[in-house]
Amino acid sequence: MVKSLQNRTQLNNGVKMPWFGIGVFKVEEGPDLIQAVKAAIKHGYRNIDTAAIYGNEEGVGQAIREAIQETGISREALFVTSKVWNDDLGYEATLAAYETSLQKLGLDYLDLYLIHWPVEGKFKDAWRALETLYKEEKVKAIGVSNFQIHHLEDLMKDAEIKPVLNQVEYHPRLTQKELQAFCVKNGIQLGAWSPLMQGQLLDNPELKELAGKYNKSVAQIILRWDLQNGVVTIPKSIKEHRIIENAAVFDFELAKEDMERIDGLNQNKRVGPDPDHFDF
Which residues bind substrate (predicted)? Predict the structure, then answer.
């Protein structure tokens, strides 16, 4: 059982990744971003997730440097993820994109680098670049995001190195059971983006009822459900009180029947793009 913010899951290459972190999707560069990342680190978060397309790697890097200076925490204690965007998928282009991300973040290495979307005809070349970065020890681990089962099968046909993680849209309306079973079978950790369905689930009557039962917020119920399902989770917030609240999920456990009730909310409904039909 995941007992604290610092608890980690061991990825298939032996690297340990915190189960819980902060995401910064759609958080613009500026003081709010820097304060949010610093607040997260101050309150015990060790997992920070960004991406080239978010346009905020510089702010994230600045926040990390300031937090290290102010708290005395080491860079090695943190787990930093970024992702290569679709325009940069290709062997040479992906290698260059990694260097650009590092430069913007002001870091010597990333803990995890992901292919952001499975662009047909492009993601295999990008994966070769990630394998090169990994072999050259420029990154601690490599993985993918938004890959369906067939994308993973296609990738692994030619890959030398298996992805350590697949980060996908994951919440009670999109439980991704088949994909998760495939990932578990293949030793690929599942990660969740948009775990709160961009706030759309916070008024759900069944989840509100469970929140009352456990004396927790709806968000806390959902995030606890993620963790008990063995999914690495990175809720996004820029408000310090919410960052603290999101992480207060280690002092209770959902009963099996309540886990099943939440699973029962699945409608295979997405708030983000469909990985089989996107045009960017």
Answer: 116
